[in-house]
Write a structure and sequence with these properties.
This is PDZ domain-containing protein. InterPro entries: PDZ (IPR001478), PDZ_sf (IPR036034), Peptidase_aspartic_dom_sf (IPR021109). It comes from Dictyobacter kobayashii. The chain is mostly beta strands. The protein folds into 3 domains: 129 residues, Acid Proteases (Cathepsin D, subunit A, domain 1, Beta Barrel), CATH 2.40.70.10; 140 residues, Cathepsin D, subunit A, domain 1; 84 residues, PDZ domain (Pdz3 Domain, Roll), CATH 2.30.42. Helix content is 10%, strand content 44%. It contains 6 helices and 32 strands. Strands 2, 3, 4, 5, 6, 7, 8, 9, 10 and 11 form a 10-stranded mixed β-sheet that branches. Strands 1-13-12-23-24-14 form a 6-stranded antiparallel β-sheet, with no helix packed on it. A 6-stranded mixed beta barrel has the order 16-17-22-18-21-20. The N terminus is likely disordered.
Length: 380
């Protein structure tokens, strides 16, 4: 055992994102459990409004608009426990996302556990055994390959250095992202320099994270990259607008970054993050099937009525998909599975299969139901 597991609980993956169950205790004695996303790249402790209302927590009147569109209100957080370990909430304020029952489309997510809280501990994410633990310190020898990290003390955002095609790049270690993200400027440069690297238009599969402008994204498969001494092969990345990374404020980052290393890579490891000594330790636990983008390549957007709209169609689909599915279609069923109300992860998984595997999609277009036969393809 390498980490004193003062708080050791189960970790669950959905859409390659890690979730844990946190116990909450209020001053009135009310105790309940809630599902939180573990977000090493998150800057705020966030609760849904539904959770805050259930806990009957006092809320400040001032409205805050963050990230361009989301509206929050501050509140004093209750006591939080990871297993038997009570989190250190010294000088911690929290934000309530106004009007929310969940923080991710189609997922039951009550809150986000952010990087600045995690950075007060030694953190273990063991994706293979489904284990998450916190310890005040890492006192014994660590397992796995050592990878230095840098992080800003105010945000706790951990960054690592990766090498791709002989060049070094800074990446945020971002557990809340399901697919590794890179600046579109970097991806466009590689597309010119390395035309043999597979790429495709629009974000599909785990690259489809419900973010803005995913229909304009570019996906690419990088043959190899190294993180410290750890060699990664056939890594799928998705482009994000330049402003998402290069223009990040340096008051929350210890070093410049061009993207984020995400769940599609991290899930293959047992990762310990020793913030106190600016180190992480990576142990292989499962080298995943490299072709994680074998599916019907559709970018999906969640509608207000919990149905899914086709926002884009990958150019690397077979002709049967490009000819029978249109942008704007509502996806209702996949081989008889009703997808309305399901999580994006469930819907994406329903569209996976070996290249050439056929599915029947039930679509709604301009009020008319259409049943179409489509085939999966190797998108990248």
């Amino acid at each position: 055992m390498t980490v004193q597991q003062h708080g050791c609980i189960s970790l669950h993956l959905s859409h390659d994102r890690p979730y844990i169950e946190i116990e909450i205790r209020t001053a009135s004695g009310y105790i309940r459990k809630a599902r939180f996303l573990v977000d090493t790249g998150g800057g705020a402790l966030i609760f849904t409004e539904a959770l805050v209302q259930d806990l009957e927590l006092p809320i400040e009147d001032e409205l805050l608009t963050l990230f361009g569109k989301h509206i929050f209100r501050r509140f004093g957080p209750p006591r939080l426990f990871v297993g038997p370990c009570e989190l250190d909430m010294t000088q911690v304020s929290a934000l309530m996302a106004v009007g929310t029952c969940s923080l991710f489309p189609g997922e039951a997510v009550d809150g986000i556990l952010p990087g600045f809280l995690l950075s007060r501990y030694c953190v273990l994410l063991d994706y293979s055994t489904g284990t998450f633990s916190l310890s005040p310190s890492c006192l014994t020898a660590m397992r796995g390959e050592p990878v230095p990290i840098s992080f800003h003390p105010l945000s706790g955002f951990p960054c690592v250095e990766v090498t791709i095609a002989g060049e070094q790049y800074g990446l945020l270690l971002d557990t809340a992202a399901s697919c590794t993200m890179l600046s579109e400027a970097v991806v466009e440069t590689w597309a010119r320099q390395f035309p043999a690297w597979p790429r495709a238009r629009c974000a599909v599969g785990t690259a489809n994270m419900g973010a803005p402008d995913e229909e304009h994204a570019t996906m690419m498969r990088i043959p190899r990259m190294t993180v410290g001494s750890v060699l990664l092969r056939h890594v799928t990345v998705v482009s994000h607008p330049i402003r998402a990374f290069e223009m990040r404020r340096f008051d929350v980052l210890a070093a410049p970054i061009v993207g984020g290393l995400a769940g599609n890579v991290l899930k293959q490891f047992r990762i310990e993050i020793d913030y106190a000594h600016a180190m992480s330790y990576w142990e292989w636990c499962d080298e995943s099937y490299p072709y994680d983008m074998d599916l019907v390549g559709l970018t999906l957007s969640l509608n207000a009525d919990s149905t899914y709209r086709v926002a884009a169609i990958s150019d690397c689909n077979y002709a049967c998909v490009r000819q029978s599915v249109c942008v704007g279609d509502r996806l209702l069923q996949v081989d008889g599975l009703r997808v309305t109300g399901l999580s994006l992860s469930r819907v994406v998984d329903a569209l996976r299969g070996s290249p050439g595997q056929r599915y029947t999609l039930l679509l709604e277009r301009e009020g008319e139901l259409r049943s179409v036969s489509v085939a999966t393809a190797r998108i990248v």
